[in-house]
Predict the structure.
Amino acid sequence: MKTRMMAGAALALALTVTGAGSPWAATYMRGNNGNPETLDQHKTSTVVEAHILRDLYEGLVVYDAAAQVVPGVAESWEVSEDGTEYTFTLRNNAKWSNGDPVTAGDFVFSLRRIMTPATGAKYANILYPIKNAEAVNTGDMEPDSLAVEAVDDHTLKITLENPTPFFIELLTHQTGLPMHPPTVEANGADFVQPGIMVSNGAYVLETNILNDKIVLQKNENYHDADNVAIETVNFIPIEDRATCVRAWEAGEIHSCADLPAEDLERLQSEHGDATRVTPYLGTYYYALNHEDEFLSDPEVRRALSMVIDREFLAENIFQGMIPATSFIPPGIGNYETGSPETDYFSMSMLDREDMAIEILEAKGVTPDTPHKLEIMYNSSENHKNVATAIADMWANVGVNVTYNVRDISAHYAHLRDRGDFDVARAGWIGDYSDPQNFLFMVESDNDGFNYSRYENPEYDALMDAAAAETDLTKRSELLSQAEAMFMRDLPFLPLLYYSSLALVSPNLQGWEDNIQHVHLSRYMSITE
């Protein structure tokens, strides 16, 4: 097998009064949802960083404007009959921003680095389908044991432990992006700095100013540079969604990557087709700390889940989202069995609340003898509103809530580094369309994303069995059993299925709505 509307008046005025040669003609002012924690592709975990890294680097394969997988550095690839060996042919004209050719050895270097324990890559397990990857990452084998081989400068061979139906799409993720070995070796952690970073994507890093902007300039050595229309991309970190909307309406930016849900109706009314609402492969959830004495009780976790009115959250706070009745969002690939049903979602909210009260009363928890929990969330009006609403719901059954608010990078760093918490807001956007990409998060050895410290050998065994199963129907059945166990044990409380919300200037051409909410700047252009 071989795989070869009209915007508001303020915005319209701001974008049309500028003359030829204006920075609007060549510069994309791009709203991003916060500051990146790092631009080291092996240490990132959020979409804030992914948006930037996809502009700076190009992997073996990439997403096109519609989020379909297309060739990147690899112009073609072959897959062995048993589905375990991938041979990639790299294009001859792929270059680094300093003019060096991109070689198969660069990918070998990068894949070995992310698996090396000393790198501390929290996302390394996404690449565990590669043979020996887990053993290398846990220190049981040396990095050169990883089953990646540079056959020659333009031929890369990757061998997998088992057939993995989503492997090609997995390589679109930032963990599969290459690094320029001489730069990393010479500069260590400083390889991400402006003036030092050498990248191979459509853009190069010019400046990175905290709380101000990240400036990317067109990479003239990029193999498809002739088709890259936008010369400069300014990523503007705006964590507060309402602030981004005001900047957009003032004509200061071309796009917002997210919107305040409470303003959605007005935005749709005033800005029409510039307001984009699109199904998104993701789940908004609360993580529960299983090491906390109170939350370690599965009946308590069930009661807390039962009393949450997800329809209220969807209709009154996150308009455009869908109430979640499972962790895996609908529409995902390779899941013909589908998510299992959870009994209490068919009950009325009154009956659910009565049952939750009964459960918690048996634990000695009532409105008169309450238990206190802290909800930790990253700063955003939407997240604040959700936390406040859930606090009101939990107060009815005897659980009083306090809050701990951090900016997005500090929030996720605290979770990944196993900082203490009771309940923490989080969200997961699928890196590839397969249920494994959601369920793997709470495997017991997933230190980076198992925020709840969930440990269940039966669950791990089901996930291992699914990884080894080559029959897609049987694999789907195993994953459905794992999700049923997840919904029984509730390491996370699924709250909502995401929709992507965006504001896009009519002057920004080439933005295509897609389920991955991926929009590479190289596919877009700006018109006057």
Remarks:
- The longest strand covers residues 275-288.
- Residues 3 and 149 are 20 Å apart (CA to CA).
